[in-house]
Amino acid sequence: MSSNSSSSPSKLQSSSSNGSPSTDLPLKPIPGNYGLPFFGPIKDRLDYFYRQGKDTFFQTRIQEHQSTVFRTNMPPGPFISSNSNVIALLDAISFPILFDTSKVQKLNVFVGTYMPSTALTGGYRVCAYLDPSEPKHALLKRLIFSILASLHDKFIPLFRNCLSELFVNLEDQFSDKSKVYFNTISDKMSFDFVFRLFCDQNPSDTRLGSKGSTMSDKWLFFQLAPLMALGLPKLLNFVEDVLLHTFPLPAFLVKSDYNKLYNAFYGSMASILDEAEQSGIKRNEACHNLVFMAGFNTYGGLKTLLPALIKWVGLAGEKLHRELCDEIRTIVRAEGGITFSALEKMTLTKSVVYEALRIEPPVAFQYAKAKDDLVVHSHDAAFEIKKGEMIFGYQPLATKDPKVFEDPEEFVGHRFVGEGEKLLKYVYWSNGREIDDPTVENKQCPAKDLVVLLSRVMLVELFLRYDTFTIEAGTLLLGSSATFTSLTKATSI
Ligand code: HEM
Questions:
Q1: Residue nearest atom 40 of ligand 1, based on CA coordinates
Q2: pLDDT of residue 23
Q3: Is residue 445 annotated as involved in ligand binding?
Q4: What is the per-residue DSSP string for 253-309?
Q5: What is the pTM of this model?
Q6: Ligand 1: which residue has its CA nearest to atom 27?
Q7: Which domains, and CATH codes, for the chain?
Q8: Where does the chain bind heme (predicted)?
Q9: Which residues line ligand 1 (CB under 6 A)?
């Protein structure tokens, strides 16, 4: 895209950040304003958390400005973020500028307009907060690629093992109750999986015992509280706003839990830490990065991903379940097991996973700063963004863009089958297009393929064991909840 601050306001030649053909769109000023200093950000924060709620917050502004690109403040605002002014991008066309690291900087913007204290990560800025222009980003991301490559053969058997324990647990709970809350058992399974994957031992055999997932939850909460509302009665909104959104929670309150996690990883990852040292990263810095990779990126990611997947597949109903059973069982029988090649042949299962990632991307927010003056375009206009301005994308609106996806609010299991595959370039959950690959030069999730693989294995295990199931869905601080209300065992395999 060409930066062109001197172009006439009527038409401007620009191309989209994803390299699609140039378009000739009218250059318009970005609508919206930030209000008065301090009061504007507070008003927007109260609208976002309490008066309107997330989705209405964005929808009303799209209506008001008749534009999917506009200026607003994003929480938390004072006093946690020093500047909460952003340019919001809420359509599929403008959004990918956030992935283009030649045009935007991703320094310290991993969670938004504030950065949690580095006291929560051993005093280090971990990989996710680094911009690719910082040499350490490539060093650390290369280490993560290398770890993932070395664990490749473990992914399927280990995850199946963990899922097997999860389903035994689910059935046990069903024998006592008529409903089973999925998130808690999913979190426990996810932490066990993460620890067994990276540390090659069961967390219960370490000093973490069975508390790894709750310790991680607490540590995650200290980092993400400024973005959360607890859903308390209205009377308590003010107190909550002061406690969670105005000042950072003191990191020392979670230090002892974090140290336990750190020590457990440090004690079990000797060979990975050796590799890190050889590549020039200090041993303790590498370990803090690995705790973040395991506890935030992987455990935190699975914590939102798996309940959302179960929720959407559950709500899709029996017809889709029958089709998934047919596909999964036929291919597993023909291939003689659950292998990478068997999973690759499951076109419907693959599509269902992409659809879940489209309709409810596990990480909803992306931020980046313009490196230079640049021009971004939506479907119907071009907008100039100045060097240093913060750009923000609320991904669920970009991946439910009605000008790209038919029935965007519907969960359509077959959406990405056959010709539908062409739409994968509009699936952005990994902080990049689904057809692109993570590299050390970009900020796309290095575990993009692993995450898709695990989601497929989850569906395969589910529909090998059960014919159908029903779900009650709910919303949580960040993400969805799923409660199983019935589970019908497989009649044929
Ligand atoms: C389980 C589900 C996962 C989800 C939903 C997820 C999602 C994401 C997203 C959206 C980003 C980009 C954030 C941004 O800069 O805006 C990201 C980055 C990252 N993810 Fe993942 N991730 C998951 C699993 C993992 C796993 C298993 C690993 C580790 C092996 C991992 C390691 C990372 C790292 C290191 C980054 C920063 C990349 C960079 O700085 O270039 N993630 N992830």
A1: 128
A2: 63
A3: yes
A4: GGHHHHHHHHHHHHHH-HHHHHHHHHTT--HHHHHHHHHHIIIIIIIIHHHHHHHHH
A5: 0.95
A6: 298
A7: 12-489 (1.10.630.10)
A8: 445
A9: 106, 110, 127-128, 137, 141, 144, 148, 293, 297-298, 301-302, 305, 362-363, 366, 430-431, 443, 445-447, 450-451
